[in-house]
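One example copied in:
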Amino acid sequence: MDASLPNVEPWDELLNGKARDCVAIVSTHEGGRVPENCRQVIEDQIDDLVHDFRVGATALRGRRFAVLGLGSSAYADNRYCAAAKKLEKQLRKLGASRIASEKLDDQSDESDALFDVFAHRVIAAFARPCKIQIHVKDDEKVKNLRSQHPSSLKRNDSIDNDSEEDLLDVEDVGTSFAKTKNKLQPVREMVTSKQAASLKKEGYKLIGSHSAVKMCRWTKHQLRGRGGCYKHTFYGITSYQCMEATPSLACANKCVFCWRHHKNPVGREWRWKTDPPEFIVEQAIEKHIAMINEAKGIPGVIEERWHEAMTVRHCALSLVGEPIMYPNINQLLSELHNRNISTFLVTNAQFPEAIKTLVPVTQLYVSVDAPNQQDLERIDRPLFSDAWQRLGKSLDLLRAKRQRTVARLTIVKGYNEDDLDGYANLLLRGIPTLVEIKGVTFCGKSDASDLTMESCPWHHEIVQLSDSLCHKLNHKLRTASSSVTYGIASSHKHSVSVVLARHDQLCDTDGVWHTWIDYDKFHQLVRSGEPFDVHEYRAPTPAWALHGAQEEGFDPSDTRLYKKKANGKSR
């Protein structure tokens, strides 16, 4: 039975029908709970039975059950497969007998082997009317596990069919096998073979054991003279000379709007093999240039730009995962700067201590995905139970940064667009140089998210939200007797993006915005080894990039291509 379908009542079938055996396969969603569309069956119905005095504690006596939990061990113990654990407990309260229980970790390569053991246990038990025990020598799968990992079985050097010690509950084999593997296994690579295959299929070029690079679509667009990304409009990067990369494919969140569809691993701490930063940077540039070389065959590529693209000038450390998790992030940043490559580092604000010790970054982003704790847990689905506190601490640390800082808001309709007061309170803690407000981009249907095109705001809605947030933030700053004020500096309609900027840092007294970056000056300042701040490497924003300009953030040196819809009209 599919628990997400209406009018499904498996527990009534167990209570009053002919069914005597049950297998429940339970996945994990927000806070360790089952997905919302299954909660009525997996949580509500069984809870009602447990607390109904008419049912009683022996209602399911004589019935047998098995529970298979699916989740990620990267979450805290109280969230890992919590729904499966709760269901198992509830069924036992009603008098049912457990014949098998297993928790499969989506971060483990051993899941298939453990599932085989679980399935064998369930099939063998349901085929017989009494409690089953299996002779080790008669079960081929267990024999294979024993030959590979002898300590996973009970301590006994010889196999004697008549010996009680040789009778092994297969359920215990699975658990013991997993524990033994963890003890014997050396420091492993971050990405499993399945994850690697999935990432490669989506166009990622993997580097070593935990890094990757991928060509951004805006790189291709600007190579063809069809416009640059919002960072070109806001900050003056050359999109076709920008490399999108990450030194850590792992992340501490499973955001509903993640455009990578959760094909990457997750974790709360670094526990994998570590590649040197020089190797990562060298390989990233090499693989990126190889992709640029292949792009020459794309129709419309401007040859002059294609040659210039062979020199990487910018690196967006935002490809996927959490770059700041990488233990040698400072050395990696320095390696990029030594090659005159600017850095745009995006962090999800779950590792404040790493933010505190960061070397100067061209522009440091902190993702502010929700205005309050409830919405944050709903939209980010964080691994850390104190994710909200970590976000607050990360924003506090932005105040001490002398270089450019950005609070990045990704707006998802129906999730996080209403509580502007909450956003303003968070921004007051960091008072960043810039506030980017971007509508979420729909990246296709994914089993990991229920977002649709209806979740994506229109540009005029983001402009309206940005204006309201700017007024609310400025009011709070005046109330706090702060001299800081914000204004809408630039917008990029194609990306559904708006940027707020601080007047005191990026606007002259004559009202001219300086959101662009003097990249050569930045590298000079880094090489000097002396402290420097935002004012020293800012550059004027061109008229076409200003908010309200008729170009709407599109560089007039390029030619915009309008794709026609079925009705002959462009969206």
Q: What stands out?
A: The longest strand covers residues 97-105.
